[in-house]
Specification:
mainly beta, Jelly Rolls, 21-stranded parallel sheet, 2 helices, elongated
Length: about 675
Amino acid sequence: MNKYLKFIGGFIAGAAFVITLLGWIATAHANPFIPFQGGTGTSIVPTLGQIPVGTSGGVYGPTTTLAGGITNASGTHIGADYSYLVSKVSNEGDFTDIQSAINADCALASPGLIFIKNGVYALGSTGLTVSSTCSGIGLVGESESSTVITYTGSGDALRLGDASGSLQYAQLNNLKISGSSSGLNAIHAERLQTSYITNIYLTGFTKTNTSSVDLQGKGIDLDGLGVLSADNYFCNIHADHNDIALLIASTSNANYFCGLDFYGQNNASSALAVIQSGVGNTLNLTNISAASSTGGIGVLVNTQRNLINVAYSELLGTGVQFGANGTNNVLVYNKMSNVTTPVADNSSPIGTNIIWNTQGANSFSTSTEYGDFNVLGQVISNSKVVASSSGNATVGAYSGGTGQFSTIVVGRGNTDEWVIQLKNDGTNTLHIVDAQNGGDVLTAVPNGSTTIDAPNGGSIIFPHAVVASTTLTVNQSTTFKGSISSTIASALLFGGANGVVVGYGGTSCSANQALVGLNALGVSLCGSIVSSLNGQAGIVTAVGSLGGATGTIAVGSYLGMSGGTLSASSTLASSSATFIFQNPTTTPPNNFYSVQTSNAKTITSVNCYEYAAATTTVTLYYETSTATSSILSGNIILSSIACGIAGTSTATFTTSSLPINAYLYAAVSSTAGSPLLTTLTVMATKL
């Protein structure tokens, strides 16, 4: 019995111990102690999205998993969209300042994205820097309007890259950077390549300096440093009240800008966007405007082969200005309001830029056309350029005065052949110049004499009838293949072997007879000459004069003068048609263009070029009836020509004959890469 009583007592004591232990455990779970065994825990219950992570002091604290708060032994972050989280709230992220997060990210083997929560991050006078060794880094704000970086220094608020190498695959998104009148750049990108900068608001960098754009306050300064900044994507950039919104400098090539909204301060000496150096850049500006008064320049272009598309501009002194080196660019200008001078061109040589104005003829006045190819309305590419308007239409070359040149140049390839010109000689004398051999072949003095010359030992040939009503002086080898007539009684004329001379009275001298005078009734007095004009084997010298108030001198089949105005014939012996594809596509109806030719022609060559590092393949064909968009069998001229940045030329065709009144088509059949601007020029001669 005693044995059983001892057993029962021991059992009761053991049960009490177990009950006590279970009660202690229940109490411990009511106040969480993490981890369950060992270490120093916390009584703070983690919220949704947090886990306990150990700190340097051995205490576990709730940490947001968005920052990837768990690492393995090598330090690689596991299971996170972002490398680090930056927050102004303590213990909410990895860092409370952006530069510390940048330094930590760049120390990783593969830098990644840094998420920056809404808040105002005051940098003071020390800006943010991302070195060229940190390719792949990204700064992503929570929202463009509320993730704000402020800077009060005199340099760069954010510097991306440096001179030691190329920074690639960087990202900026959803940030606002605010500066002051002492700040130089909101974003200064050096040797930046293949990077994406989107949804950025830049404001307050209003530092002024008239001696150099490098010393002016800027929203974005993209600089290749003489090496290269290329293939970057900038989109939805809002720059508000900066001295310069965008500077593209020093070998910055093939960068793409879209959704640019530039609203500038009233600095009449500044341009809101400056393309100082680089080629192949594309700028799509949704708006470029001054603050409140007309002044300053919208876009200043000092380099070549760039595409600028301006959707709207307002309150500017000059909308777009081409500097001395601003040649071979393409400008599309859509709508403007209160812009004093829409386009100004100071490039040299002048006339190489192509300008489309889709708003209509009234948007460009003659006082603001500076010699470029200003197309008012639609381009009609055939043997001539057409300025189309419901009223008057003019294609002209206007200089500032008699001390400057007004010039129209025609040639083949890149070679000037002929020049029609008012020279800088203090007069308004018209000159037609042989550009290859030198010398004037025609000069016309207003209300004065007109001189036709063969300055390099050639001869002058008049293939048709000549009617002279003013002074006609012949002093070199000249052939008259048609009749010569005069409207004045005192004319002294000679009849050539192939022509007939008609005097004032209407009577004629026979072939090979000289008109030696007229009687009182105006009847021709004819005399015989020996075998040729004036006995000199076709050379006529000092033959008196022909005068009068009206008449026409027909200078060949393709050039004429009437009433002092030089005019080109509508049946030129040769012609060209240029097709221009902006952002080429294979999708109808934007994949083809057509022109109609009024004469039968023989196609001699086709040349094409793509401004970007890409390829556009084009098919050339014709239709003989109503223009359609289909490629018809049997009318193919050139089945395909690949247009790349190196240019392509060919003189080999399936057929080279273009019938009269045919419709000539160029259609994009395929593209490779991302072509920006493809031009295709067809050269032909008249049958």
